[in-house]
Design goal:
By secondary structure, this protein is an alpha+beta fold. The chain is about 30% helix and about 25% strand. An 8-stranded antiparallel beta sheet has the order 2-3-7-8-11-14-15-16, with helices on one face. It has a 3-stranded antiparallel beta sheet with strand order 1-9-10, with no helix packed on it. A 3-stranded antiparallel beta sheet has the order 4-6-5, with helices on one face. α6 crosses α7 (about 265-290).
């Protein structure tokens, strides 16, 4: 899964000085990242209990390791899945088609070759070449609640799992009557309702500078960033990161350091942030511009920015 470590949050909510709305907040470690939920208006500790119970349930459901249903699918090549998991696999296939395969939910045979952390080394190129033919959403078949994988393919929902989970958390908060809240799954941010002063979301500078690359008051409820500076390591002077090009099985190297996508659908925003980074600024922006109610910001290695036609509306004054 596309995970973020504790020190590598891509986005964070900034509270203005003197803000009178001190949130009721809780933080946990799920989906291999730091998860924070802040309640500004409405809700209580019991509300947070229910939200985090749901997030823990999804963390187990969508985990491709261990003994969960998707892990069984990867191990056995077929499985009877909970209806929610099967529906999400179908959504993943739709998003793969939408992005021309730049987002691939069946890239697990390749992603499983990469490890990150202390002492990490890149996989053997021969192993990557051998695994590539076992990728692609066409290797995944979903019929009702039954799923099957062909040719030894493996699913990996890292490109949408956090987006879907953040959407579910927001949905539950709305059902609980919460009027203003923020959900942050390691940088997959979803806002619920409105508050005063308004939500401010900072896009982290890829260089690691303290100053944010952009400060936003998004007109859409979801803001998701994919960055090459997360879950990465350098080996023999070459940067290896977790965003892989489905066409090559190797980390994307196209001059893009991060892509932030704004949309009302957190699952869509999650998949598009990865896909747009894979596609690069030209094709990635073309994809974003072809979709209604979606905006994106590209931060490039040369220090320049590219943004979709309506992105400026979400920049903070």
């Amino acid at each position: 899964m596309k995970k973020l470590g504790f020190l590598f949050l891509l986005l964070f909510c900034l509270l203005l000085p003197g803000c009178s709305e001190a949130p009721l907040a809780r933080t946990d470690f799920l989906f291999d990242t730091v998860v924070t939920v802040k309640l500004y208006r409405g809700g209580d500790e019991a509300t947070l209990d229910r939200v985090f119970d749901r997030l823990r349930e999804l963390d187990r459901l969508l985990d491709v390791h261990g003994d969960g249903p998707l892990a069984v699918l990867n191990r056995d090549g077929e499985a009877e899945l909970p209806a929610e998991a099967a529906a999400l696999l179908e959504r993943a296939q739709e998003l793969s088609a939408l992005t021309g395969g730049a987002y691939d939910p069946a890239l697990g045979a390749v992603t499983g070759l990469y490890t990150f952390g202390e002492g990490a080394v890149p996989p053997d190129p021969a192993a990557v070449a051998e695994a590539l033919p076992r990728t692609g959403s066409d290797k995944l078949e979903v019929s009702g609640t039954h799923a099957a994988l062909a040719d030894g393919a493996r699913v990996d929902l890292g490109g949408i799992a956090k987006g879907y989970a953040s959407a579910e958390a927001a949905r539950l908060l709305e059902e609980e009557g919460v009027e203003a809240a923020l959900v942050d799954l390691g940088g997959n941010i979803v806002t619920v309702g409105e508050k005063s002063p308004p939500f401010r979301i900072a896009v982290r500078s890829p260089s690691g500078e303290a100053e944010a690359a952009a400060l936003l008051t998004p007109e859409y409820r979801a803001a998701v960033t994919a960055g090459t500076y997360q879950r990465c390591f350098t080996y023999d002077g070459v940067l290896y990161h977790h965003i892989l090009d489905p066409a090559t099985g190797e980390p994307v190297r196209n001059g893009v350091q991060s892509v932030t996508v704004l949309a009302d659908d957190p699952t869509l925003a999650d998949a598009l942030s990865t896909a747009a980074l894979v596609l690069g600024p030209e094709r990635g922006l073309a994809l974003v511009e072809s979709l209604p109610d979606v905006e994106a910001l590209f931060l490039l290695e040369d220090g320049t920015e590219r943004e979709s036609s309506g992105f400026s509306r979400s920049r903070a004054d």
